[in-house]
Amino acid sequence: MRILITNDDGINAPGLEVLHEIATDLAGPEGEVWTVAPAFEQSGVAHCISYSHPTMIARLALRRYAAEGSPADCILAALGDLMTDTPPDLVLSGVNRGNNAGENAMYSGTIGGAMEAALQGLPAIALSQYLGPQTADLADPFEGARRHGATVIRQLLDHGDWTSDADFRLFYNVNFPPLAAADVRGVRVVPQGKRQGSRFGVVPYTAPNGRRFMWVSGGSQQAPARHGTDVAANLDGFISVTPMRADLTCHASLRDLAAALDDTDLTARAAE
């Protein structure tokens, strides 16, 4: 198996080393692991691509590259330049330092990398390690992902929906709970949730020269979410697995809204 890995924490991030270890296990002795990751941290860039300026790509070692761009840029660089003759069988993005459950998924460059791979027609999985009080004192805060990552991916490869004939191919978002590996309770397949009373905000700041800046601040990652969602599963000690796709349509609303708006007489409305 040939596996491409990327992340949003940067080429030197410890989570990428964990992911390389997981990918090497999955690829086997006859396989290959290719790394194309951002040269610098790209957390929070979501599915951003560098559409209006060029991206420099540097070869660091055999099958290891850094790109001055986003995780989605890294996928495009791999498929359109670096691996054109040897395309990957699987794309893994992560292991993110911190969770990408709940509303975090909408901002995540880790998710963005996996999403771009799916849009390009490739099987893709995003992996993130939830952090919290019980991981703060661990010698390896990624030990949950390190120990259980390959097992979960193998289960997904065996049982996930990898068909590519839909308009938007599925990819998978995996979050490991904020616990020691031995305390992880199992796996739960759950939808994306939303933390209650927790959202991103800003902290304004005035520099000594009088110029105005702001820091973006996150909400509490321990805030509860509706039972049966990814956040709730993680806080209950389970690995969450969430099927996702790059389709933001609210399909449940289409029929009623179409009944109200389709075939509207715009000429008559404009005359009112």
UniProtKB/TrEMBL annotation:
Cofactor, how bound (note): Binds 1 divalent metal cation per subunit.
EC number, UniProt record: 3.1.3.5
Coiled coil regions, renumbered to chain: none
Catalytic activity: a ribonucleoside 5'-phosphate + H2O = a ribonucleoside + phosphate
SUPFAM superfamilies, per the entry: SurE-like
Compartment(s): Cytoplasm
The keyword Transferase appears for this protein: no
Residues bound to a divalent metal cation: D8, D9, S43, N96
Span of the signal peptide: none
Domain Survival protein SurE-like phosphatase/nucleotidase: 3-196
Record keywords: Cytoplasm, Hydrolase, Metal-binding, Nucleotide-binding
Source organism, top-level taxon: Bacteria
The UniProt record lists the keyword Membrane: no
InterPro entries: SurE, SurE-like_Pase/nucleotidase, SurE-like_sf
Any matching Pfam family: SurE
Family: Belongs to the SurE nucleotidase family.
Function: Nucleotidase that shows phosphatase activity on nucleoside 5'-monophosphates.
Name recorded for this polypeptide: 5'-nucleotidase SurE
Organism, as annotated: Paracoccus rhizosphaerae
Lineage: Bacteria, Pseudomonadati, Pseudomonadota, Alphaproteobacteria, Rhodobacterales
